[in-house]
Specification:
Length: 79
């Protein structure tokens, strides 16, 4: 049976947090329906605690991208 989160080649959606652009506001964490994103104690180049991708369960909904106030901090790929 086809998994509806995959494309025809079986490639899943994915998310990347570019940690040096993230300010750790947490909005993406709150709005992710799959709990993919988590707060981290890692401090980035700007001195902020950042958000990390914690699971491979991204469905490519784009919520995190839409709510993120920092341009370029999140990339979502929907194959
Ligand atoms: S695209 Fe959707 S499922 Fe994937 S990390 Fe962002 S909010 Fe979560
Ligand atoms: S919404 Fe953007 S700035 Fe805020 S924690 Fe997520 S990636 Fe970082």
């Amino acid at each position: 049976m086809k998994n509806n989160t995959n494309n025809e080649d079986g490639v899943k959606p994915s998310v990347t947090v570019h940690i040096d652009l993230c300010k750790g506001c947490g909005l993406c964490i709150i709005h992710c329906p799959k709990d993919v994103l988590q707060a981290s104690i890692q401090i980035n180049a700007l001195g902020y605690p950042t958000t990390i991708v914690a699971t491979a369960d991204c469905i490519g909904c784009g919520n995190c991208y839409l709510v993120c106030p920092e341009p370029g901090a999140i990339t979502v790929v929907r194959p």
